[in-house]
Amino acid sequence: MAITWGPVQSGQGASVQLGLDFSTATQATSQTVVAIVYLRCTAGYVSDNYNTLVFYGDVSKSISNVNGTISAGQSHEVGRATFTVPRLQGRANAYAVGARLDGYTVGTPSVTKNGSVPSAGYNSPARPLLYVTRQSDSRVQITWDTTPDPGAPVHGFNLEQREDGGTWRRIMNTADGTLRGWTDTSVSRGHVYDYRVRAVGPGGESEWNTYNGLYMTPFAPASVVAARDGQDVVVTWANRGVGDYTTHVWQGDTTAGAANLSGPLDPGVNSFRATGLDVTKEYVFTVGHITPDGLTATTVSNTVRLLAAPLAPTNLTPDGGYQPIYANVRFSWSHNPTDGTAQSKYEFRYRTSQGGAWNTVTGTTSNQYYSRSLPSGSIFEWQVRTWGQDITKPSEWSSIAAVTPATRPTASFISPAAQTTITSDRATIEFSSSRYPASYTLKVESGDETREYQGYGSGQFTRTLTGLPNNSDVMLWLKVHNKVESGAVTRVLKVKYAAPAEPTGSANWVGDTGVVGVHGVSRDGQVTTDHVNVYRQQADGTLVLLGTLPAYSYDTVPDPVAPLTGATYVVEAVAPSGSTRRVAVAVGPAPVQATYLNWGAGVAKWVRFRHNPTTTVSTGRGVVEQEFAGHALPRVVFTDRVSRQVDIGGTLAGFYAGDTDSTPDEQAGMLLDDLAMTDTPVVVRLVTGETFTGYVTGVKASRALWGGWQASLTFVEAEHA
């Protein structure tokens, strides 16, 4: 610090001054001050060591015989005094010190100096006491208290709240150190709140004092459903509690006096099974959330009965249409339990006029049907109700089902007469219905085989049966239907006929034409043969008729689309009576690999290319172009049709035009012209084995220099009308 100098004292030819300075050391609650006194000579010379240095003011001290000898221009310390000054909180503490030399040669020099101790800091306030009281689901009273402390004054408080354990938020901030309460109206039902408070002063902030877990009335559980499960009831719900709540399940519609079935259930549990119940009683259940301080909210379930009335029966049959009069009709339904128990009883009632009186029949069985004959009348209405295990509670009556009584038609065979002997494997059956129009079902049983035919008409019917087995009894079974079905009538026919002899057959590949030639030759037998049929047998066993040959002929039926892998054929000899005998023949894979074209009735004409013609197969989808106004380009619509085109070119290895009187060159020319102009299907079979049917366009032919003919053509796959 700087030295403060007192006034100059002069005498005895000299001039002197006293100076005063402070040296300080500051502690938390005080400051140590050392007052240092200096003597300075401004003129002359002084010799004096018999004086007294006196300190006064906020320090009192005397020092005798200080060194007072000094020359002009010199200064030195003459004495010190140490004292302590307390530090005041909130303000500085001033002090003053004076010093003088008593008995000094040059007057009584003196000096005074003032100082100040800086204020001491305040302490942080103590943590307030906190009290929280729930007044309602929308009002909470918060109070606090603090002990006065001058060293830790309080200038205000911070109050914070958090909902459901979330983030703290400031709800009150005051600079009033005397405030001791606050009302929080931001709360609401179904939540839990925490509060904390702290004091704020010049010394800083106190620690928080926290109150955890102030619960409002909880929300009641939602979607409380009681459902029967065997002889138990399972109660389920949706939790809506918060915090450290528990859930309870009571039996009954109120918690007052109701049995607490579950005890406290942990948060998250949402179902409870009630067991040991009286199956004859109805039950409701109450589910409630309870907070730790006892606030409760509850929801009552639906009513459930372990044994309950079933729902009305459904699936009533018959319902609608006609039923025959004076015939036993089976009326059936479906029992629909709500408690899972089977039907124990039913009531069936009916009436024979709309709006008329009901006639009731009771059945005490589990049978879900009732049979009775149907009286004549314009309508027969019926309905039913059922009981489950609880025989005191029936279902509601079902909806009304209705049928119309109708007289049965009569089916009759006309011809042939019973026990007639059929002398062929085919017979024409005539039969009728007493009421018409009518439909019919005709069954033909012979041995282990049963065939069924159906039809509809004016009441007079004719049906031709084929393939009747020889030396057998054939049972005919007939029913007709007009509104209702007739009874069945039967007739037995005897079948005995002389069949033609078994034909012989063969099938061979024809290398020139690329087709299979099938030969079918009849032979003499008990009866003559009228003609021979030739069939190709498909992969699924069905027969495709390829052609018919005269009896005892050695002609051939061509098959231009036989699979190159081989095929099976059936040769059938047919007698004038219609009886038949069959034999199967087979042909192996094609031995010749070439490209063929066949056409004309009976494959009368053919072309065979050498084994290596050029072939190109083009495939594309059908496209329809449509022009629209305002569009420069047409729009296209793709169809489901797939078109294929085959371009073939090469040297002819053989051909046949059906004209033996012309030269080969003339035949070739006629043949290629005919190929382009024919209106019969053209069959193309490529060396790859692919077979197409369609028509040919754009035939070109030329005579090769080395002999023979070269041809190129375009084939388009198509169907022929």
The end-to-end distance, rounded to whole angstroms, is: 133 Å
Task: Tell me the strand percentage band.
Answer: over 45%
Radius of gyration: 63 Å
Helix content: under 10%
Principal-axis shape: elongated
For the sheet with most strands, the description reads: 6 strands, mixed
Low-confidence stretches: none
By secondary-structure content and strand pairing, the structural class works out as mainly beta
Number of helices: 1
How many strands? 59
- Average pLDDT, all residues: 87
Summarize the entry for a quick read:
The chain has 721 residues and is mainly beta.
Word description of this protein:
- The model has no long low-confidence stretch (mean pLDDT 87).
- Strands 38, 40, 41, 43, 44 and 45 form a 6-stranded mixed β-sheet that branches. Strands 53-54-56-59-58-57 form a 6-stranded antiparallel beta barrel.
- 2% of the residues lie in helices and 55% in strands.
- The longest helix is centred in the last third of the chain and has 14 residues, at 664-677.
- By secondary structure, the protein is mainly β.
- The N and C termini lie far apart (133 Å).
- The protein is elongated, with a radius of gyration of 63 Å.
- It has 1 helix and 59 strands.
- A hairpin with a 2-residue loop joins strand 17 (192-201) and strand 18 (204-205).
Give the key terms:
six-stranded antiparallel β-barrel, mainly beta, elongated, 721 residues
SSE topology:
Blueprint: E1 4-5, E2 9-11, E3 14-26, E4 30-43, E5 45-46, E6 52-57, E7 61-64, E8 70-71, E9 75-86, E10 93-102, E11 110-117, E12 129-136, E13 139-145, E14 156-163, E15 169-174, E16 181-184, E17 192-201, E18 204-205, E19 209-215, E20 222-229, E21 232-238, E22 246-251, E23 259-260, E24 271-274, E25 282-283, E26 285-290, E27 296-300, E28 304-305, E29 311-317, E30 322-324, E31 328-336, E32 345-351, E33 359-363, E34 369-373, E35 380-387, E36 401-406, E37 411-415, E38 421-422, E39 427-433, E40 438-446, E41 449-457, E42 460-465, E43 472-482, E44 484-485, E45 489-495, E46 504-510, E47 515-521, E48 531-537, E49 543-550, E50 556-559, E51 567-574, E52 580-587, E53 595-599, E54 605-609, E55 614-626, E56 635-656, H1 664-677, E57 682-685, E58 691-703, E59 709-717
Parallel strand pairs: 30-36, 38-45
Antiparallel strand pairs: 1-3, 2-3, 3-4, 4-9, 5-8, 6-7, 6-10, 10-11, 12-13, 13-16, 14-15, 14-17, 17-18, 17-19, 20-21, 21-24, 22-23, 22-26, 25-28, 26-27, 29-31, 31-34, 32-33, 32-35, 35-36, 37-39, 39-42, 40-41, 40-43, 43-44, 43-45, 46-47, 47-50, 48-49, 48-51, 51-52, 53-54, 53-57, 54-56, 55-56, ...
